[in-house]
Design brief:
Elements: H1 3-11, E1 14-15, E2 27-36, H2 37-44, E3 51-54, E4 62-71, H3 75-81, E5 87-95, E6 100-108, E7 114-121, H4 130-139, E8 147-162, E9 167-178, E10 182-185, E11 188-195, H5 202-209, H6 219-227, H7 237-251
Parallel strand pairs: 1-3
Antiparallel strand pairs: 2-7, 2-11, 3-8, 4-5, 4-8, 5-6, 6-7, 8-9, 9-10, 9-11
Length: 252
């Protein structure tokens, strides 16, 4: 993490996990942006009066590790690649600092809503337990016996909460992906505005002034493209080009 990001976080008023419950937003709209670490430092300095910083046990960043599941034929990836609506994402996510682990079923509806259901589990399961399989059957139209581990993902998250509207802003840095090989994207920032409806967002106003526009960005799909060279990825070419461009700009 850069010194500038850390300095900014310490200047924000804190909010606890319990206080943040009122903006859990399990049924929400999501808007994503991608940009570089230097842009993040510039942007965060303007957000101080508008947002709280989530603080847990004195920490204002959180480490996440995620295991995504798909079929052997990559059906969930291909459904996204082919532009299908009402698509699922199945993952196990672990909050490293608090040692909490959840199996999650996410549905992106044809009305652009994200609906997430989850249950707490003990730890990662590379072979799904019967409880996990039953949960997936109950909360999706998928057959869990067809699902296998597909991709690991690590990142560090900053979570900001609006002082005036029903909005959470998550900012992910230090991204890496791993399956049979590994890809690190340390230059990349993925910011996501999560809100009920179209409530106002100060972050979105500021980022718009920097001429950064919303961009669809699936960690699972982008990681899959980087690590599986033969996979079809027409839908994600713009994301891959944008990520590579940011990397090139920082090294030239």
């Amino acid at each position: 993490m850069t010194e500038g990001v850390n300095k900014f976080l310490q200047e924000l008023e804190p909010i606890s996990l319990k206080e943040m419950d009122k903006v859990a937003l399990l049924n929400r709209t999501d808007t994503k942006f991608i940009f570089s670490i230097p842009t993040l430092v510039e942007t965060l300095s303007k957000l101080k009066q508008h947002y709280f910083a989530l603080e847990i046990n004195g920490q204002r960043t959180a480490r996440y590790k995620t295991l995504y599941f798909d079929t052997e034929q990559k059906d969930l990836f291909l459904r996204h690649q082919n532009g299908k609506k009402n698509r699922y994402k199945i993952r196990i996510r672990k909050y490293i600092d608090s040692n909490l682990c959840y199996l999650e079923v996410k549905l992106k509806t044809n009305k652009n809503r994200t609906i997430k259901k989850r249950i707490k589990i003990v730890d990662f399961e590379t072979e799904l337990s019967q409880v996990s399989k039953d949960f997936i059957r109950d909360k999706s139209s998928l057959e869990p016996n067809t699902l296998v581990p597909a991709l690991w993902n690590d990142f560090t998250r900053l979570t900001l909460v609006s002082k005036t509207s029903q909005e959470r802003l998550t900012i992910d840095i230090n991204l890496s992906f791993e399956s049979s090989s590994k890809k690190e994207l340390n230059h990349l920032v993925i910011a996501e505005v999560k809100r009920e409806g179209n409530s106002p967002s100060e972050f979105m106003k500021i980022i718009k002034d920097k001429h950064i526009r919303p961009r669809s960005m699936s960690k699972y799909c982008v990681g899959s493209v980087f690590l599986h060279k033969k996979i079809k990825y027409n839908k994600f070419k713009r994301q891959i080009l944008a990520i590579n461009k940011l990397s090139h700009e920082l090294t030239t």
